[in-house]
Design goal:
Length: about 110
């Protein structure tokens, strides 16, 4: 009985040692990943980046049931460019559902 208990304890200790060794290897990878992601996030605050958040006129591709936006095909401040992008999107993907919106206002909608 004691031999089984000792074997179980030794096995558990071996597992703990292996887990500790694995986490040592991950530690360097994690810190490098953290540094890289942090660097990319800092780039988002660059004032020279394109300001897509303020481009309210968007062409959006929706799920087939129309419940969720799957992808913003185009975002622009120009309604004229947005209409052209909408027509190009419908022409390229006629089986998909699209909206042309300015904020929450739906300007055009295409549902096959």
């Amino acid at each position: 009985m004691t031999a089984d208990l000792d074997d179980g304890q030794l096995h558990t200790l071996g597992l703990l040692e292996r887990l500790r060794a694995e986490t040592r290897g991950i530690e360097g990878v994690y810190s490098d990943l953290y540094r890289r992601v942090d660097s990319l996030l800092r780039e988002l605050s660059n004032p020279n980046l394109h300001d897509i958040a303020n481009m309210q006129t968007r062409v959006e591709l929706w799920t087939p049931d129309g419940a969720h936006v799957r992808w913003a095909v185009a975002a622009t401040a120009s309604v004229t460019i947005a209409h052209a992008a909408f027509e190009a999107a419908v022409k390229n993907w006629p089986h998909e559902r699209f909206t042309l919106r300015n904020g929450i206002l739906v300007i055009r909608e295409y549902a096959p």
